[in-house]
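Standup notes
- DV: blocked on the single-chain target, sequence here:
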Amino acid sequence: MQKESKDFLFKLLKTPSPTGFEQKIQRVVRARMEQYADFIETDYHGNVIVAKNPDAEIRVMLAGHCDQIGMMVTHITSDGFIYFGALGGIDTGVLEGAHVTIHAKKSSIDGVIGRKPIHLQKPEERGKSVSDINQLWIDIGAKDKKEASKQIEIGDSITFKLGVTELANDLVCSPGLDDKAGLFVAMEAFRLCAKSKLKVGLFSVSTVQEEVGLRGAKTSAYEIDPDVGIAIDVTHAGDNPGKGSTKAAPCNLNKGPTIARGPSVNPVVEAKLIQAAKKHKIPFQFQPSPRLLGNDSTAIQVARSGVASAAIGIPNRYMHTQVEVCSLKDLENAAKLLAEFIKGLGARSDFTPK
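- DV (later): unblocked, structure below
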């Protein structure tokens, strides 16, 4: 991966974007993409839409959601401890002992999620994690409520402490790879297309509030009214001891992005994605999904009178934890696949299943 692109990815990963609080990361997206776009628009919902050749008859939408799972301050105790609620699908099993950051209006405040030491636990408590988020608290070191309240307010957002760890074999570890990996791919594919004479209009969208109901994809797809809509999101990797069913389709890091198959996917778009991958020797894996996918493609598919939808997956280990792991090679290949797919479309391409 080229240095400029890698720097952009890492900047995304180090920028907080809990669901409903995406403004900071959207500023990063706009700053990066203004050099490549014919125009950039931020809608009332907070989606950032980056467009090239917008007046073309055929319109293609790429969607990567910028919001990450997080938490929100709900209560400050008299002795300065902070209780919180979930923003999105938080796994309470990984919260105890976690380093977190509270994103207050004036500054970011570091804290830790505490738990009762094992020495003080009753025998029946030992070996069990807390399943009720209301039993967990954040310690920022405040001596009392008055001191804590000078730094934070009820309703402030919280994330795991952000940062990137580079692992062996082109792997990276960070909170929020779901779905800053997909956001990166949507924008990187746009960059790869920027100097080409496209025969279609391209709209790469940094969507908001995916983690609470695919909300940004619904509103941005309605506005863009695309012919083709492709969501890029992480998908569960199976190349680790926590892979689950041995009967699931293989999904390995460094083996390429996945191309989804099933009712969420238009068969013409699926075929063209596979064709582009094979023609340009881009590795890929299949992601069979007999049910509707739980990503932005499901919302895009039924926008207005219907959209030819598809989904590209980035294999991800340990999803919705503070140590998500993805492959830089998979991100790079996903962007190349989408760019070649888009460059290969004609001005009168037909996506009607026949």
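- Follow-up: The chain has two domains: 3-68+175-343, 70-160.
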